[in-house]
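Re: weekly structure request thread

Next one in the queue (119 aa):
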Amino acid sequence: MRLEGNFYKVITIDQIENSYKIEVELFANHSIYNGHFPQQPVVPGVCTLTIIKECIEKIYSNSVHFKAIKECKYLSALIPQEGLRIIINLAIEDDKKVCVTVLRVDNEQSVLKLKASLM
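Done, posted below.
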């Protein structure tokens, strides 16, 4: 199931060589928060990874999968709120290895660091 369009939308994708800066807005009223967690909703980590994967697919114009995740460190929780935007900084190496950092736009707080290889 694709999350783009009903869980989030891509605002911009800027490219500088093999690096990308992707701004994404998360939708605060998605039904996933009814189960994760109803009284104190948090963006599920797997959804953040799916957003990253879907953005990479948009760049490649092709389906991709994480072959291996070397490092995935969540540094802070994303609490859904109206207008919540994140920046995905993505560097892709020739051998389909990616280094990703995710930041909140409003306070530049680090959310996630990821090192992975794609297939």
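The first strand starts at residue 8 and ends at 16. DSSP finds one helix and six strands in the chain.
Next request, please.
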